[in-house]
TrEMBL record:
Coiled-coil residue windows: 148-175
Keywords linked to the UniProt accession: ATP-binding, Coiled coil, Kinase, Nucleotide-binding, Phosphoprotein, Transferase
Sites bearing 4-aspartylphosphate, chain numbering: D51
Protein name (database record): histidine kinase
Example GO molecular function: ATP binding
Length: 406
């Protein structure tokens, strides 16, 4: 038996083809009604199985046109559809002369059995003549009613989905308002904390530093060596606390305020930062290499802060090297444009790399390399605000490389 399968779904055609070929049938295919007419005229199949909803020409128009050909109008025609499955569609299919109207999906064995039963019933009826083709006006009337009904149902479905989306959007907007209010409240609390740090907490520190200095100036001779050592430790600790307060304020400023995005010449910024470092320590001979043409879109003020910390760290940690090298250059990271600051400084053990992006985490002692331990934490926050990422790679005694995207 030769079977013509007409369906715009390649997968559905494949399933039917394998099923019927397994039972010994010869199967030909078409992707729409227009192709189906051409294949039917050329192959004259013993059975046609067709979808309803297809581009170019749908199944109803295909069957209507097929019935106009005397040599083709007696071919058993079975609709197999997942969309047009209502009673109106079934009535139109019967009026057009379809053998049956089956609903997708069916298991391959169920489809084969059902088609066999339908063909057996068709042969048993022993109809003497086929019904004449439906008149064009009658077909267009019934076909239009089917399409209009299906469109009305689709409009109702879309209306219900739209109303559901509107409800969801309303809920999302309400949640956004709530989260925005919570964020604004958190920012206000942060501003109050920053004010407290910059004013209230500094007052007792100033008193501590002032009185400890007065004590050192007026009573140092009356204290023994141990007493003077204790006093110096108090003064160092108060200065360290003041530095930490400054660092907290700087960290707070890095995550506040609106980003002013613009095209930024990173090469020019890097040269400016490197020049400032060179002027601050003219006695040092550092080979500063800044690549040309580096550009990014972001907040120029904050990106300069990033370079100040990264290049500053590279400058600091190359101090023991006789021939210090600091490079700023473009690179790639996970398929995206990135920028890197590399040095040949002291480096560090990578087992502790992640902790460096947390505030006040350091790899080296204060006496060896002075600092507040806040630079990389600030870098990470600024880069994150730009939607980027940052990583650091290093080897003990062989320097480090910080890579970031924005």
């Amino acid at each position: 038996m030769k079977v013509l399968v007409v369906d715009d779904s390649r997968n559905d055609r494949k399933v039917i083809r394998y099923n019927f070929e397994w039972h010994g049938c010869h199967v030909v295919e078409a992707a729409n009604g227009k192709q189906g007419l051409e294949v039917a005229a050329a192959e004259v199949p013993d059975l046609i199985i067709s979808d309803c909803l297809m581009p170019v020409m749908d199944g109803f128009r295909f069957l209507h046109e097929l019935k106009k050909f005397k040599e083709l109008n007696a071919i058993p025609f079975i609709f197999y559809s997942a969309i047009y499955t209502g009673s109106r569609e079934a009535e139109l299919a019967a009026a057009l002369g379809a053998t049956a109207f089956l609903e997708k999906p069916m298991r391959p064995d169920e489809l084969w059995d059902e088609v066999g039963r339908l063909l057996a019933a068709e042969l048993a009826s022993e109809r003497e003549a086929q019904a004449p083709p439906m008149h064009e006006e009658e077909f267009l009337r019934d076909y239009s009613q089917v399409v209009a009904t299906r469109l009305e149902e689709k409009v109702r479905e879309l209306t219900e989905e739209n109303e559901s989306l509107l409800r969801l959007n309303g809920e999302l907007e309400r949640r956004v308002v709530e989260r925005t209010s919570q964020l604004e409240s958190a920012n206000r609390d942060l501003e109050m904390f920053s004010y407290s740090v910059s004013h209230d907490l500094r007052a007792p520190l100033r008193h501590l530093e002032g009185f400890s200095q007065a004590l050192a100036e007026e009573y140092a001779a009356k204290l023994n060596t141990i007493g003077n050592d204790y006093l110096e430790r108090i003064r160092r600790s108060s200065r360290r606390m003041a530095d930490m307060l400054d660092a907290i304020l700087e960290l707070s400023r890095s995550v506040r305020g609106k980003l002013a995005r613009e095209d930024v010449d990173l090469s020019a910024l890097a040269r400016e930062v490197a020049g400032q470092l060179a002027r601050s320590q003219p006695e040092r001979k550092v080979d500063l290499r800044v690549a040309e043409g580096m550009a990014a879109r972001g907040d120029a003020r904050l990106l300069k802060v990033v370079l100040e910390h990264l290049v500053g760290n590279a400058w600091k940690f190359t101090q023991p090297q006789e021939h210090a090298v600091v490079e700023i250059f473009p690179t790639e990271w996970e398929g995206h444009s990135a920028f890197a600051v590399r040095d040949n400084g002291v480096g560090f053990d990578m087992a502790y790399a992640e902790k460096l992006f947390s505030p006040f985490q350091r790899m080296h002692g204060q006496d060896e390399f002075p600092g507040r331990g806040i630079g990389l934490a600030i870098v990470k926050r600024i880069v994150s605000r730009h939607g980027g990422k940052v990583k650091i790679e290093a080897e003990v005694g062989r320097g480090s490389t910080v890579t970031f995207t924005v």
